[in-house]
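Troubleshooting log. The previous structure file for this entry was overwritten by mistake, so regenerating from the original sequence record. Sequence copied from the archived sheet and checked twice against the printout by T.R.
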Amino acid sequence: IEIFIRLKLTGTSNSPLTTDENDPLIFKTARVRLRDGVELAVDYLVVSNTGRFPVILELTPYGRGPDRVNYRYEASYWCEHGYAFVIADCRGTGDSDGEMAFFSREGQDGYDLVEWIASQPWSNGRIGMRGSSYTGTNQWFIAREQPPHLSCITPSATLGRPMQDIPYRDGAFGVDWAINWINYDLNINVSQINESHPDPMMWLNHQPLRTLDLYATGKNLVLYHTFLDQSHHDSVYEVDLQF
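Regenerated output below.
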């Protein structure tokens, strides 16, 4: 994946420039306004010497900070090899505004984010994306929108059919996955569920499903109700890329 990204962003498998490993990295946080007014929380790291760099981007629902899945070690690696690194919280997660939409807004949000990056003084306008699981799958939706400055994507461990594979499996709603993933994703302490309902069968067997989120977590989870209400054959989740 690393070699592929280098080839697509720089035209060579070598680093685009040599940096001093003792060079401090510039770390900054920004808020990026999207077309509908929602703002995404974004961290970006660049090497301290001046210039414009190809950019590695990850748009994640799993938290960009050191207390969650920590991507900053990886960011240092890319920056030391001559790239800028950007990681952003998905809509409705982390420090970003809005409601988490489970892929239905990722294409437009990613388009706006890619084009914002391209306009920055530290960017050379060539952006590549990386990530796995959710952060791999959302790359397909962003590529579908064809942002002009997206040079390559490297998705891995992706969903083949969002909503049909997860949270539905051949039409059956995956209650356990839906509740636990939403809790993790939205930074609700899953251990609180286990403390309140130490026997998972108590909430897995709860009826009706529409009140399960309140029963299990004490919260009304908007995304959970989106899962219940959204048809898993909705065209918004279809990706047809022409190469």
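The mean pLDDT is 80. Archived copy saved in two places this time.
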